[in-house]
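Protocol step 4 of 5: obtain the predicted structure for the target chain.
Materials: sequence only (see below). No template structures provided, no constraints applied. The aim of this step is simply to have a reference model before the mutagenesis design in step 5. Sequence pasted as it appears in the construct record:
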Amino acid sequence: MKKIFAVIIVAAVIAVIVFILMMNKSKREAKLKSGEITSGYPVLVTPVKEDKLSDTLSLVGTIAPFNEVTVGSETMGRVTGLYFDVGDRVGRGKTLVKVDDEVRIASLDNAQANFDKAEKDLARYEGLLKTQSITEVQYEQAKLVYAQTESALRIAARQLSDTRISSPLSGIVTQRMIEKGSVIAQGTPIAVIVNIDRLKIRVNVPEREAFRMKVGDRIDITTEIYPGVTFYGKIMNINSKADEAHNYIVEIAMENSRANPLKAGMFARVYFKEIIPGNTIVIPRSSLVGSIRSPQVFVIENNIAHLRNIVTGAEVGTLLEVIDGLTPGESVVTSGQINLKDSVSVTIVKE
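Step 4 output (structure tokens):
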């Protein structure tokens, strides 16, 4: 009885296997009839097309004052007056520091006296020359003395003026380097003054994008300090020399806002819009074989995959600009490249 039962089980298993094999054979025959058996590697393709490729390049830059100057002393002496402090807003020409001027005043008085005497002597010599009471040489000597004392007077006046150190621009004092009573020398730094009524933002821009920009382009600017507030500026300068990473410094000028004032040293995010003008040839980034440095794609012609070198441009989202190597209407592989080699047969699979 057990042997009969075992035979029945074996027969049943064999019957199931035969049934499965017959079913698989039927499916293969059906595929042959419908032409669905692949004659090559299955791939997904997309047509090459022209499109307007535009994007917003977003970079972070540093805000700097439009003007920044370190005020230095043009004379030497003891500081007797100090008329500013850090954080003060000063106007152009405002006196910041007064240096001891007692000796300069005396020098100016002496120079003035010598000049007055020389001026009177010259006038007197002119009269004597007309009556030929003096020689031409004596008159020329009086003219020389007059010119020398005039120069000495101007020098003395300038030296006295230099004892009052003034602001060369309107702005805000960010540093003070001296104290009242300090003895300073010529060239001693006094203060740092910045003008932040206007600002400039410095941004490092990759060379490919930098060459698409031009002076005067309008730029949108945002900061984390004022969420939701957009500022506006214009490109004022694009550096002519790149750094070692092939980035160019781009300077953007903007007016400071009274409602939302910005300060030098802050970070700002700038948005360069419409970098790529006009229509251009684009393909999906997924079509690319290899790297951006040596880009290639598989182009399908009559179900044959041809590996082709291309020249790429900007990458915008999932799209890639093609500068050379493709024409609109050609088909490129977007999926399945891993199995492909040049000149192999493929079957285009519909998504």
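Step 4 remarks: The chain has three domains: 41-53+278-348, 56-65+196-273, 70-189. The chain has a mean pLDDT of 86.
Proceed to step 5.
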